[in-house]
Amino acid sequence: MLSLNHTFEEICKAFKLKGEFFGYNVIKSGNINDTYTVHTDGYEGGRTYLVQRINHNVFHSPEKIISNVCRITDHIRNRMLADGETDIKRRVLKMYHTPEGQYIYRSEDGSYWRVISYITNSCTFNSRPTLKVMRNAGKAFGEFQKNLSDFDASSLYETIPHFHDTVKRFEDFEKSVAADVASRAASVKDEINYLRSMASYAGYFSALAKENKISLRVTHNDTKCNNVMFDAGTGEPLAVIDLDTVMPGYAAYDFGDAVRFAANTAAEDEKDLSEVSLDTEMFTQFASGFVPQLYGNLNETEISTLAMGALVVTLELSSRFLGDYLAGDTYFKTAYDEHNLVRARCQIQLARDMERKMSDLERIMKQF
Ligand code: GN1
Ligand code: MG
Questions:
Q1: Which atom of ligand 1 is least distant from the CA of 227?
Q2: What is the pLDDT along the chain (368 residues), one digit of tens a residue?
Q3: Ligand 1 proximal residues by C-beta, below 6 Å
Q4: Whose CA is nearest to atom 14 of ligand 1?
Q5: CATH topology of domain 4-120
Q6: Which CATH number fits domain 131-365: 3.40.50.2000, 3.40.50.620, 3.40.190.10, 3.90.1200.10?
Q7: Measured distance CA(142)–CA(136) in Å, rounded
Q8: Three-state secondary-structure class, residue 43
Q9: Residue of 47, 64, 281, 290 with fewest CB within 10 Å of its CB?
């Protein structure tokens, strides 16, 4: 296998990045793509770039994600510039291209690579952020949706078809149970039964859409709080990143997925289930940042069903983690054998707590 040093050297040359490559760091947080910071020297004290290997098993058409991401970031950049933004390089990602106009570099082993701007003096937070970070993450994702509210959602490629189609996710889960290729179904009967008992929630949002009570919007679809870059000095949100799954979607999935990840009192893959619950204060803080950004864009039903989005998306991800465990761990990166099962159990525990607290959560949402 080729060394990463060699690959990054090639990439720096192909993209004509400033300075000479001298080293890289691994960014560990993603479950799909591989992300690195790549450092160069010899040009005004050096430069840092974000270099990513696109997971081709998940994103079958890297050109389509590049096209979506370029169009979205151009749109946001133009809107921010029109609003007088003066720090534009730190507020929106830039995709690099080679002198020939290529945004993707194929390394000798066939991998797909891209180069993205690195936001200086910034930081990200994983689960268990502070209340201030939570509010600012809400503001960032709300502003992101607002900035794309005049973007024609139907013109985007569906980079992963049926990504937040919870009904289809539950059907796929049932297929994994039936196929049981890794012979694991017998050992996770309780989890399977729980998800089956909750299957009626899967169609909650598609039913509202059928009745024209909610609309498709341009949504982010992967609103983990570590997908927001914050100013390392002030804690203010700068930019939303990880734009590969930006597609038409329902606002509640963005709201819900953010809460699922960041308002969990434990990590997404916590083994000790007694640590796992939904922190209503964190939930409130996120909502207080998110909802005001979208006044005038979302209708009453959309706002009043945001809390339900948290439960539905948590059930959806439970079915995806457990489905991948049953399929022999082919989709999500895992760090150990039972990782997907641990993740699924954690998400199920969280879903149980959300269901218990749903009337409180809905009451909280009424203040916005
Ligand atoms: C994956 O790799 P990452 O962290 O951006 C997944 C999301 C899940 C998330 C769970 C393309 O996102 O849908 O919610 O893991 N992304 C894809 O941590 O499947
Ligand atoms: Mg992602």
A1: 5
A2: 569 999 999 999 999 999 999 999 999 889 999 999 999 999 898 999 999 999 999 999 999 999 999 999 999 999 999 999 999 999 999 999 999 999 999 999 999 999 999 999 999 998 789 999 999 999 999 999 999 999 999 999 999 999 999 999 999 999 999 999 999 999 999 999 999 999 999 999 999 999 999 999 999 999 999 999 999 999 999 999 999 999 999 999 999 999 999 999 999 999 999 999 999 999 999 999 999 999 999 999 999 999 999 999 999 999 999 999 999 999 999 999 999 999 999 999 999 999 999 999 999 999 99
A3: 30-32, 58, 222, 224, 242, 245, 268, 317
A4: 222
A5: Phosphorylase Kinase; domain 1 (3.30.200)
A6: 3.90.1200.10
A7: 10
A8: coil
A9: 281
CA of 270 to the centre of ligand 2 (A): 20
CA dihedral 272, 273, 275, 279 (to 10 degrees): 150
Of the listed ligands, the closest to the CA of 220 is 2
Cα 87 to ligand 1 centre (Å): 29
- Distance separating alpha carbons of residues 277 and 352, to the nearest angstrom: 9
Domain map (residue ranges) of the chain: 4-120, 131-365
**What sign does the CA torsion over 355, 357, 360, 366 have?**
negative
C-beta separation of 191 from 348 below 8 A: yes
What is the distance in A from the centroid of ligand 1 to the CA of 29?
10
Length of the chain equals 368
What is this structure's pTM?
0.95
Cα 143 to ligand 1 centroid, rounded to whole Å: 21
**Closest ligand (CA of 256):** 1
- Which ligand 1 atom minimizes the distance to the CA of 33? 2
Q: Say yes or no: do domains 4-120 and 131-365 share a fold.
A: no
Contacts of residue 85, Cβ cutoff 8 Å, sequence gap at least 6: 91
